[in-house]
Write a structure and sequence with these properties.
Layout: H1 2-28, E1 32-33, E2 63-69, E3 77-83, E4 91-96, E5 103-106, E6 108-110, E7 113-114, E8 117-118, E9 121-127, E10 135-140, E11 147-152, E12 163-168, H2 175-185, E13 193-196, H3 212-225, E14 230-232, H4 252-257, E15 273-277, E16 280-284, H5 296-304, E17 315-319, H6 336-348, E18 353-356, E19 362-365, E20 368-369, E21 383-384, E22 390-394, E23 415-419, E24 423-429, E25 434-441, E26 451-456, H7 458-470
Parallel strand pairs: 1-23, 12-13, 13-14, 16-17, 17-18, 18-22
Antiparallel strand pairs: 2-3, 3-9, 4-5, 4-10, 6-9, 7-8, 10-11, 12-24, 15-16, 19-22, 19-23, 20-21, 24-25, 25-26
Protein name: Purple acid phosphatase
Cofactor: Fe cation; Zn(2+)
InterPro entries: Calcineurin-like_PHP (IPR004843), FN3_dom (IPR003961), Metallo-depent_PP-like (IPR029052), MPP_PAP (IPR041792), PAPs-like (IPR039331), PAPs_C (IPR025733), PAPs_N (IPR015914), Purple_acid_Pase-like_N (IPR008963)
Length: 471
């Protein structure tokens, strides 16, 4: 009898424990964890004789052509390319569609050395004072090796200007990388500019940080990056700090190859800056530069956020490499110190969305903040906060390190959707109040949306609410 009583008591205790655990799971569970998980094998590099790495024919033909915004408002374009054999011409010839008048701009030429590698001749040329919303053709090179491309400038800055951004991160140069870029190019949403959230070539994953892999990557992405601007931030794979190779200058390959209009944003470094484009104000931050109090990046961002005029550019977008919120095991909480420094500002200024990479998977957060904690009050859990941005991790470009598949369990309340698949995003601004985000898996049809969200602008939403309340 006594044994039975003890047994029943233990059963009751177990039932209570499981009941509490079940309640905890119900309380702690977040959004959706997709049941589709690709295998986590390492990515396979495309062979070096692949057509995507093809060297353009002709002696000293320009290669690795890419463009980015060249000023603060979108009337300038920086054209960059490399000639492998000799400097050649640093001139860009350009003309507007339906115009016979050709113009030219003069650029600069530089080279760099990294361990046992010497770069080709890197050209950067800024074209100024273009017309808004105009298609331009441009040529680089000389003689029989001239190459022609085109781009379209954005519409004039304004609150109701629609514009579509592609979002890609952690790309590399594998078969999956190629699928991601192809999927983006064929997406019927037709992205007009890429927001690239860091980790470009993964050259540092090869022996001796093989900088020839920067060249193959540059030729691989040229098919898109020569025709639409890529707005890039640096990731950990751009640091290239290698004292064992006597390479002690961080970001050397990246800063030589990728020029950005940081001076127009009154920044002291090309690693953090801002631009306006159509109805968006984009702030680029560096997760791997000093960002603590009184550092140059901190002081710049402190002055930059109050400058944003949301009646002119209502959509405030931040891109960085390391996510501030992520529920994947790999890289878990690596962005915590930056979150502690900057999250309060992001909420105060009603940033709409923060795009990041680093974690090789996809995740979208709820609007949450964790700014109330002061170490003694115990308020250390993220809470719902409609002034906070949505955090989107999109480090799923397809690099050789493969996908991250292990997730923290149960899914935390701040996580709305997560999935370990390769893909890209589209951020489609409709007007001052609404934008539409969609995430597209590589394995789906080009128009298929695996995850999506309507964005209600953080700044204009409060005016809508005030108008409704006054009725």
């Amino acid at each position: 009898m006594g044994l039975k009583w003890k047994s029943d008591k233990h059963i009751n205790i177990i039932v209570v424990i499981f009941g509490v655990l079940g309640l905890m799971a119900e309380v702690c569970n977040g959004g959706i964890t997709s049941n589709y998980v690709r295998n986590d094998d390492l990515g396979r590099d495309m062979p070096l004789d692949s057509d995507v790495f093809r060297v353009p024919p002709g002696y000293n033909a320009p290669q690795q052509v890419h463009i980015t915004q060249g000023d603060h408002v979108g009337k300038g374009v920086i054209v960059s390319w490399i000639t492998p054999d000799e400097p050649g011409s640093s001139t860009v010839v350009y003309w507007a569609e339906n115009s016979e008048v050709k113009h030219s701009a003069q650029g600069i030429i530089l080279t760099y050395k990294y361990f046992n590698y010497t770069s080709g001749f890197i050209h950067h040329c800024t074209i100024h004072n273009l017309e808004f919303d105009t298609k331009y053709y441009y040529e680089v090179g000389i003689g029989n090796t001239t190459r022609q491309f085109w781009f379209t400038t954005p519409p004039s800055v304004g609150p109701d200007v629609p514009y579509t951004f592609g979002v890609i991160g952690d790309l590399g140069q594998t078969h999956d990388s190629n699928r991601t870029l192809t999927h983006y190019e064929l997406n019927p949403a037709k992205g007009q500019t890429v927001l690239f959230v860091g980790d470009l070539s993964y050259a540092d994953d090869y022996p001796f940080h093989d900088n020839a892999r920067w060249d193959t990557w540059g030729r691989f992405v040229e098919r898109n990056a020569a025709y639409q601007p890529w707005i890039t931030t640096v990731g950990n794979h751009e640091i290239d700090f290698a004292p064992h190779l006597n390479e002690t200058k961080p970001f050397k390959p990246y800063t030589n190859r990728y020029h950005v209009p940081y001076k127009a944003a009154h920044s002291t470094s090309p690693l953090w800056y801002s631009i306006k484009r159509a109805s968006a104000y984009i702030i680029v931050l560096s997760s791997y530069s000093a960002y603590g109090k009184y550092t140059p990046q901190y002081k710049w961002l402190e002055k930059e956020l109050p400058k944003v005029n949301r009646t002119e550019t209502p959509w405030l977008i931040v891109i960085m490499h390391c996510p501030l919120y992520s529920s994947y095991v790999h890289h878990y909480m690596e962005g915590e110190t930056m979150r502690v420094m900057y999250e309060k500002w992001l909420v105060e200024h009603k940033v709409d969305v923060v795009f990041s990479g680093h974690v090789h998977a996809y995740e979208r957060s709820e609007r949450v903040s964790n700014i109330a904690y002061n170490i003694v009050n115990g308020l250390c859990n993220p809470i719902s906060d409609q002034s906070a941005p949505v955090y989107i991790t999109i480090g799923d470009g397809g690099n050789l390190e493969g996908l991250v598949t292990e997730m923290t369990e149960p899914q935390p309340s701040y996580s709305a959707y997560r999935e370990a698949s390769f893909g890209h995003g589209i951020f489609d601004i409709k007007n001052r109040t609404h934008a539409y985000f969609s995430w597209h898996r590589n394995q789906d049809g080009y128009a298929v949306e695996a995850d999506s969200l309507w964005f209600h602008n953080r700044y204009w939403k409060r005016f809508q609410e005030s108008s409704v309340a006054a009725l």
